[in-house]
Amino acid sequence: VRDMKKILVVGAACVLLTSLLISCTTKNVAEQKAQAEASRNLGEAYLGKGQFRAALKEFLKAEKLYADDYLLQDDLGLAYYYLEEQDQAIRHFKQALALKDDYAWARNHLGNAYAKKEEWDKAIKEYKIVISDLLYATPQFPLSNIGYAYYKKKEYGLSQRYYLKALKVEPDFVKALYGLGQTYLAMGKVSEGIAKLEKTTTLSPESEFLYFELARAYARNRDYAKALSAYHKVVELNPGSTLADRALIEARDIANQQ
After folding, report:
1. CB 76 within 8 A of CB 56
2. pLDDT per residue over 160-214, tens digit each?
3. Cα 143 from Cα 96, distance rounded (Å)
4. Nearest alpha carbon to residue 189 among 158, 147, 220
5. How far is 235 from 130, CA to CA, in rounded Å?
């Protein structure tokens, strides 16, 4: 009987010790997750301000505490993406998707990283998975990205198709309008291309880049008066910039030809 009591006492002590260890472990994991989330939130704040190295430092700190967070892995991918470290970015975007396969934002970011590397077919594959998700809130972005990828592959018919799909979702989407304009120019549809570029400058009147591209399109169409006007708008919007200097040179070339 006495031995049985000892066994029961020892057994109860072991159960209590095991429970305490589990409780402590659970508490430690919860604390690590909380600390990791705090670092991730701080990193995201840095990311939003364009302070990519500071963001990366916080994300790596968070990863040491708790790596199995798909949001953190996506954030790490973005930090590396903006720091032009695309192989590292791709690794983390894939890790985010391994943790949550249906996280469409990471999928779109993965496509962007492949596009940065000019691996167009891989980029298109990821973007098409994104647009197959009917719950994805902003399909105009991956649709436009597919249009751009096909444009770079010189498959202009497909490029046009996807840019038009993007514009069906958001008719005033400047990125798609610009891309479609460039695609039309590449297809030899100069008037249609100019019309799209003109619309982009109406929607984004402070963009010297769009005026510069419009000026070039006018010059290609031998509409030199409009080209000169657009080049001068570039200079007006951002005097002294590299783009303004290029605009002045190209405007001077036109003036010398007349």
Report:
1. yes
2. 999 999 999 999 999 999 999 999 999 999 999 999 999 999 999 999 999 999 9
3. 22
4. 220
5. 39
- CA separation for the pair 172, 179 (Å, rounded): 12
The C-alpha atoms of residue 80 and residue 74 are separated, in whole angstroms, by: 10
Q: Are 177 and 199 in contact (CB under 8 A)?
A: yes
Q: Exposed, middle or buried: residue 114 (CB in 10 Å: 0-12, 13-18, 19+)?
A: buried
Scan for tokens 């967070």, then name that residue.
Answer: 69
- Rounded CA-CA distance 154/141 in Å is 20
| Cα-based angle 22, 100, 90 (whole degrees, multiple of 5) | 115
Task: Judge whether 122 and 110 are in contact, CB under 8 Å.
Answer: no
From the number of C-beta atoms within 10 Å of its C-beta (0-12, 13-18, 19+), residue 53 rates as exposed
Token readout for 69 is 């967070």
Tell me: the pLDDT tens digits for 115-168? 999 999 999 999 999 999 999 999 999 999 999 999 999 999 999 999 999 999
**Measured over all CA atoms, what is the biggest interatomic distance in the chain, rounded to whole angstroms?**
115
Helices (H), the chain: 2-48, 52-65, 70-82, 86-99, 104-116, 120-131, 140-152, 156-169, 174-186, 190-203, 208-220, 224-237, 242-257
Cα within 13 Å of Cα(139), Cβ side: 17
